[in-house]
């Protein structure tokens, strides 16, 4: 009777360990997928390209609004000030998007406009003006 | 004895299954999130469209363009420095009346793109420039007479995202 009980205990223990290990494995996979999806660089690249296309496709005296809710959310999580998410390097005509304190991603536009950007809540306002206006 | 051997095989088999599932998920996620969003073609298209909008007014080719006193960068709001040196962009403008070239071709940016675009058009090449070509039927004045011409614009882009 005692031997039977011991064997049953062992089976329960082995099964429990087996299930726990499988759950740990699934949990680790989910954590990997979740952290990969939250990678700032994907959004930095996406928004930089989007802003550049908007600028190059714009005409002078246009004001364009771009919803950057996801970028703002990520920047806040990474302790980055909203006003520093998008910056313009006017010497090189480059839009730089940074959602963390580890640098950012830049993309160049070819238009020679006077471009300015400003956040209004979660929307980025892009103002396009003729130079020396 | 047999049962223990079976359990061993099962655990080895199970580890193999986990490795395959885990590996597939990791590879899938890495491929998905590292996929390059290629917008070179859009940029080239926007550049060629910008040049068309700037050169053609109401179906008429700008006279100052034909006269040769035309600064494309100033008139079309293009930043000159971006098209100099190792540029990410290229454009070539030519206007023909039949076989006659109406004025000297206007070329800016990286000249090698023209050949590279032929390659990227023929085969799938990820790190090659992409081009957009526009052919527009336009009108122009020649000694007070209205004539027809074909405006050909080739624009290309080879811009990759930069880590700053």
Sheet of most strands of chain B = 5 strands, antiparallel
How many helices of chain A? The count is 3
Helix content of chain A: 40-55%
Radius of gyration of chain B: 27 Å
N- to C-terminal distance of chain A: 96 Å
* Sequence of secondary-structure elements of chain B: HHEEHHEEEHEEE
* Shape verdict of chain A: rod-shaped
Strand order of the largest sheet of chain A: 1-6-5
User: What would the average pLDDT of chain B be, to the nearest integer?
Assistant: 88
The proportion of residues in beta strands of chain A is 15-25%
Unreliably modeled segments of chain A: none
Structural class, from secondary structure content of chain B?
alpha+beta
In total, how many beta strands of chain A? Answer: 6
Proportion in helices of chain B: 40-55%
Biggest sheet record of chain A: 3 strands, antiparallel
Cα-atom radius of gyration of chain A: 25 Å
**How is the quaternary structure best described?**
heterodimer
Bulk shape of chain B: elongated
Judged by helices, strands and strand pairing, the structural class of chain A is alpha+beta
Summarize the structure.
The complex is a heterodimer of chains A (133) and B (164). By secondary structure, chain A is α+β, with helices and mostly antiparallel strands. Chain A has three helices and six strands.
